[in-house]
Specification:
Elements: H1 10-24, H2 31-38, H3 42-46, H4 52-67, H5 69-76, H6 81-95, H7 103-107, H8 114-137, H9 142-165, H10 172-183
Helix pairs in contact: 1-4, 4-5, 4-8, 6-8, 6-10, 8-9
Length: 186
């Protein structure tokens, strides 16, 4: 159990909910199991949230913030578009771990929930906007830049899916090199 003097924040609960979502979608978010995982009582939960729905909303907002514009700020600040794309692809591909759960892919099972639709839409827009901007800066015309961004992003999501289902997936360094070779215009 967490020391009585140690208090969990609302953000701690939201992050724990995100781990549950990654492993089983929104249905996996339940107060009692999360409290057990965090080593606290349900009372800790109610100090921050009135109900499960508030926790889910907070978790989705946390995910959208950390994986959308805010999470991409470090990459957006890279002035050389080729370097930006290389670093972005390398970081994304290296983060893909075989059989590791993904919040993004797990949320697709709950895509009819308006909160999920909004959070996934926000993350998708931020990622596609950065990729499109990068391809524009690399000299592609607007329509080709947007198309290339969509294909690159689809490939990234596909790699996440394969990592969850294929224990024999190639090493991430090999994938990063291949992704860079494929998606960096010559």
């Amino acid at each position: 159990m967490v020391n009585e003097s140690t208090r969990l924040s609302a953000r701690d609960w939201a992050r724990a909910a995100l781990k549950a979502i990654a492993n089983g979608g929104l249905a996996a978010v339940a107060v009692e199991p999360l409290a057990r995982t965090l080593g606290v009582t349900k009372g800790s939960f109610y100090a921050h949230y009135r109900n499960r729905d508030e926790l889910i909303t907070a978790a989705l907002e946390e995910w959208a913030r950390s994986h959308g514009d805010e999470g991409l700020a470090e990459f957006a600040a890279i002035t050389d578009p080729a370097q930006r794309l290389r670093e972005l692809l390398t970081v994304v591909v290296q983060a893909v771990q075989p059989l590791a759960p993904s919040v993004h892919l797990s949320l697709l099972g709950d895509r009819n929930d308006p909160r999920v639709r909004d959070a996934v839409g926000q993350v998708n827009r931020a990622r596609l906007d950065l990729l499109t901007r990068t391809y524009r800066e690399l000299g592609l015309p607007p329509d080709r830049a947007q198309s290339r961004a969509r294909v690159a992003y689809a490939a990234i999501l596909g790699l996440l899916h394969l990592a969850q289902t294929d224990p024999d997936a190639p090493h991430s360094a090999v994938l990063a090199d291949e992704a860079t070779a494929i998606f960096l215009p010559t």
